[in-house]
């Protein structure tokens, strides 16, 4: 999605009230089974962060605004494999949390179409911890 | 900067022509001297990517649009230390390339105020390589 369509969606009428004064974060769950090196992981987290800003920026703009104002907290967590990430995404959606799935283009290191990072949020820290609280830090 | 000010700046009059059909990328130079672990590096690259989207999205929106349309290529490179990143930023600015400096809030691992990541771009790959072409991949 380009900036123009992002802009268009941002300027559409918004529904929803104020964001509460509670800590907000973005969780980034990495698919550990792919054996990505640290530079590859960092680039995938960069992709996931940009995707999140674009998609959550239109679906939950007040939450994104509040997250940016709080310093855009991010936490990188270790997920097992694609099935694990898919299960976490389903749970997050049940709780109406924003999610974004990053798929690798396959130019380097890993097969095209690999599910590299699941982003959950930005949303209230305790709501996200209900999904990811058991996962180890990367 | 929140989404509202981003929106305001995006809707300001733009100057400049079309973007050429050449590969575009974002370089992310990591301050290796800080000894950050991979999850910390990934989160800092996430911050740098978001900052870049917000700031370059207003200063060079056509370039950002084209970068997103090409798949938002990112490359993570190993920089030596804060002085090295500062020198690279000065060179990039001389070539009129967009840069963004990520400073850590110091909640974990490293001292508050550490210069963790220098983002250069998004811009044409060969222009960025003129600055970062000698640096090893992270």
Question: What descriptive keywords fit this protein?
Answer:
homodimer, 138 residues, alpha+beta, Bit1, four-stranded mixed sheet, globular
What does this structure look like?
The structure is a homodimer of 138-residue chains. By secondary structure, the first copy, chain A, is of the alpha+beta class. The first copy, chain A, has a single domain (3-13, 23-132), classed as Bit1, CATH 3.40.1490.10. The first copy, chain A, has helices at residues 3-10, 38-59, 61-69, 82-94, 125-132, and strands spanning 24-31, 74-79, 99-103, 115-124. In chain A, strands 2-1-4-3 form a 4-stranded mixed beta sheet, sandwiched between helices. In chain A, helix 2 crosses helix 3. The first copy, chain A, is globular, with a radius of gyration of 15 Å. The two termini of chain A are 29 Å apart. Residues 7-15 of chain A have low confidence and may be disordered.
């Amino acid at each position: 999605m380009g900036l123009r369509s992002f802009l268009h969606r941002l300027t559409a009428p918004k529904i929803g009230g104020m964001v509460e004064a509670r800590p907000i974060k973005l969780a980034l769950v990495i698919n550990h089974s792919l054996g990505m090196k640290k530079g590859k992981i960092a680039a995938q987290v960069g992709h996931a962060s940009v995707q999140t800003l674009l998609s959550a920026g239109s679906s939950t703009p007040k939450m994104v605004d509040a997250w940016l104002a709080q310093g855009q907290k991010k936490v990188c967590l270790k997920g097992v494999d694609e099935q694990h990430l898919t299960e976490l995404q389903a749970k997050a959606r049940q709780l109406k949390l924003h999610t974004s799935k990053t798929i690798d283009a396959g130019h380097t290191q890993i097969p095209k179409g690999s599910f590299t990072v699941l982003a959950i949020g930005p949303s209230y820290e305790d709501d996200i911890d209900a999904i990811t609280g058991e996962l180890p830090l990367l």
